[in-house]
Specification:
Number of strands: 20
Order of helices and strands: HHEEEHHEEEEEEEEEEEEHEEEEE
Structural class: mainly beta
Helix content: 10-25%
Largest sheet: 6 strands, antiparallel
Radius of gyration: 23 Å
Number of helices: 5
């Protein structure tokens, strides 16, 4: 049977309303999928490249308002779900328009470009970001990341590039892609080369630690220690403010298992995406990067605090001539909405 008659036959099948209602109730009654937890946003800053681990899965676990029946079909057959999903290259929500501009496939990697235009205000700027809230539905397993490439102030339009890589390394053969997101952040502020007020000569050599569940890990190289999702992190202490830095505080420092740990905390991180890059700097200006960093969060009385802990391979003696320096970043505008676009992944550049 040829493809067109088959498609006509399948699309003509109608599910009874009562059966559809029961299926939707069953699906939505299940526990909500766990949010996709992203590692802190690692960027190229001041010559320091930090690599993040991306969690790959065949079923996106964070999405805007996607039809429950579509999600159910996607769980069992991603290719079929995408085949029958209609193309929609633009979406408008909360006065902001998202549009797919072009796509490009090269080997196991594909790139596509999105424009974000504010039709009502000034919430889009040159720092606009999807806040790691987006989900990508594809016929194949993949990892992804997004970045801004340009901003047109006259039209209040930002252009972003989303890059996806097929998990098995095989060449991408096309197919339809669906991207959905419910958050946009902008108005990023940065504090560069800020000294963290920390007396390195008087740190505890056996600091108190407690096991935590990790939400992300990062490294200054391709090497990461072999550990499970659980990690013995410093027990957070009284927050200490850092000059000229907003939304982040110093909550602990000391030696544990023979390594230096420095812990930072961020309030309201889900809306501000506050993050930092820390390093040690010797008297002659030499920078010493951390071996790796870990991220986790705690919730107390409904209040969430996100932590990032930086681990260095240095001895107490080596710290005598060092200071702690960092670059700090935070976003000032958080916009919620419901954007979803579906388009064929093909070479259109």
């Amino acid at each position: 049977m040829s493809e067109n008659p088959l498609k006509a036959c399948v699309t003509s099948i109608q599910m009874p309303a009562e059966a559809k209602r029961r299926m939707v109730e069953t699906l939505t009654a299940q526990p909500a999928p766990k949010k996709h937890v992203f590692a802190p946003r690692w960027k190229i800053r001041a010559g320091a490249l930090l690599l993040a681990l991306f969690f790959c899965c065949s079923v996106p676990v964070l999405a805007a308002s996607i039809d429950p029946l579509y999600q159910l079909m996607y769980r069992f057959s991603p290719g079929t779900a995408q085949f029958f999903r209609p193309v929609a290259k633009s979406a408008v929500s909360n006065g902001i328009k998202m549009t797919v501009l072009s796509s490009y496939i090269h080997g196991d990697t594909a790139e596509f470009y999105l424009s974000m235009q504010d039709l009502e205000g000034n919430r889009i700027d040159a720092t606009t970001d999807l806040n790691d809230s987006y989900s990508i539905y594809t016929p194949f397993d993949c990892s992804s990341y997004s970045e801004i490439v340009s901003y047109d102030e006259a039209t209040k339009t930002a252009t972003l590039r989303v890059t996806i890589s097929q998990a098995d390394g095989n060449a991408i053969q096309g197919g339809k892609i669906t991207l959905s997101t419910n958050e946009i952040i902008s108005q990023e502020s940065e504090s560069i080369d800020v000294e963290v007020p920390l007396a390195l000569s008087n740190l505890p050599l056996d600091a108190a630690t407690s096991p935590v569940y990790l939400t992300g890990v990062g490294s200054s190289s391709a090497f990461l220690p072999d550990f499970s999702d659980s990690f013995d992190a410093l027990v957070p202490g009284e927050p200490q403010t850092i000059p000229s830095v907003e939304n982040m505080t110093l909550t602990g420092a000391g030696f544990a298992d023979g390594k230096l740990h420095i812990q930072m905390a961020a309030e309201n991180m889900l809306q501000t995406n506050s993050h930092a890059f820390l390093w040690l700097e010797t008297a002659d200006g030499t920078k010493v990067s951390c071996d790796y960093s870990v991220s986790f969060f705690e919730e107390t009385a409904g209040q969430r605090t996100d932590y990032t802990e930086y681990i260095f391979s240095v001895s107490p003696e080596e710290l005598s001539s060092c200071r702690v320096v960092g670059d700090f970043f935070s976003y000032g505008i958080f916009t919620e909405g419901d954007w979803s676009v579906t388009f064929p992944l093909e070479n259109t550049e």
